[in-house]
Amino acid sequence: MRKDLEEELREQAHPNRLKEYPLQESEDLCQMNQNNNQIIRFEEITKVYHLGRIDIPVLNGVSCEIKKAEHVAIMGPSGSGKTTMLNIIGCLDKASSGRYFFENRDISSFDDDALSEVRSRKIGFIFQSYNLIPQLTVLENIEMPLFYQQVDEIKTREKAIELARMVGLEDRIRHRPAELSGGQQQRVAIARALMNDPVLILADEPTGNLDSVSGKEIMKLLCDLNERGTTLIVVTHDVNVAKYSRRILKMLDGRISNED
Ligand SMILES: Nc1ncnc2c1ncn2[C@@H]1O[C@H](COP(=O)(O)OP(=O)(O)OP(=O)(O)O)[C@@H](O)[C@H]1O
Ligand SMILES: [Mg+2]
Question: Which ligand has the shortest distance to the CA of 84?
Fold first, then answer.
């Protein structure tokens, strides 16, 4: 089928869907074939925060590659740059220098709109403190990622119910976050992260506020998703959480110091 016609039909079928983010030059396409199973590549990424006239270097040249469907843990002391790295991977923040390839596209120079498009189409986030909206019900919280995308309301609701069922909360969908345990709140956050069918899940200390039983349940859910093909990156201080992954990146002073 003609490419422009194909695009037109897709546009008609999903008039409100966000457009694909920009395609790269043909030489990049050659490299895409070589790195087909790669989802993330950092080349000498740095991050410097500026507080007034003071520069605070936080990432000092991080290079790494993560393959599709990998499960990677990132460990390291407080302040070593784990969250900063995760935020750049998740397009919540931009590197100060270096190149970032996501699915083999160099997205280092993307502006905020293009980055938020990548984020909303491809990436799900899970945070230590769940980050649920207290005034909304479980179901409404799960629906949030599609709220601004004007996707059909009924389809959105059906999908949110299906995800609530998947995380074992179908009997809690009308509750508000404050009426749930920590483990249940984190399960809502996982369902919310899955609403846009992400290829990549980023979890920053996902079990940090949970007792060990709830923590294991959350890790089991995340590992199940990873086994079904979603790339998973988990930042953690807890060796027992890191043990679920086959690969551990250790950070120190804004660098990857070691890999197990
Ligand atoms: N917005 C900011 N402005 C200035 N400095 C920042 C900012 N965000 C983070 N930093 C600094 O960057 C360094 C790394 O922070 P980051 O949050 O990445 O560490 P972390 O490894 O995730 O630590 P933790 O384990 O405590 O969560 C810290 O020294 C922090 O103070
Ligand atoms: Mg952190």
Answer: 1
